[in-house]
Write a structure and sequence with these properties.
Layout (H helix, E strand, L loop, with lengths): L1 H23 L25 H13 L16 H6 L8 H4 L3 E2 L2 H4 L9 E6 L2 E6 L5 E6 L3
Antiparallel strand pairs: 1-2, 2-3, 3-4
Length: 144
């Protein structure tokens, strides 16, 4: 009788462990997990939402006649460099040098960036970039 209780108890423990492992399997990052070498980055929810984009557009149109460097029409990137600027991509050294701080009035309209990240201006666009890895989390292109 005692042996049956021990076997039953061990079976219950093994079943509990197996079920917890099966539940934990679905906790990945979805399609392409680890594909770009950013396993430790949990930045998926740090994006410019519609109200952020509307606020940036409103700011842009209010300041159109006195835009800071980096946001004027003349500051646009050439098409070859423009293609290198993409969400979830890493900025090449040539574009890293062109990053300019985002105007403080515009930064105040945006939610706080995640740790190690900041809003920058490059080629007439606002980009959310990780300052350590130079990974682009989101891009906002102003409507002209």
């Amino acid at each position: 009788m005692r042996r049956n209780c021990t076997v039953l108890w061990l079976s219950a423990v093994l079943l509990a462990l197996a079920s917890s492992l099966a539940l934990a399997q679905g906790q990945g990052h979805g399609k392409g997990h680890g594909k770009h070498g950013h396993d430790g980055d949990d930045y998926d929810h740090y994006v410019y939402y519609d109200h952020d984009r509307a606020g940036m557009n409103h700011w842009y149109h209010d300041h159109y006649d006195r835009l800071p460097p980096g946001l004027a029409k003349k500051d646009r990137l050439p098409p070859g460099l423009e293609k290198q600027l993409r969400v979830r991509g890493t900025l090449p050294p040539g574009l890293q040098k062109k990053l300019m701080p985002c105007p403080p009035e515009l930064v105040r309209r945006l939610p706080p960036p995640p740790p190690d990240c900041a809003n920058f201006v490059i080629g007439g666009q606002v980009v959310l970039v990780n300052r350590k890895t130079y990974m682009v989390l989101d891009i906002f292109r102003f409507a002209m």
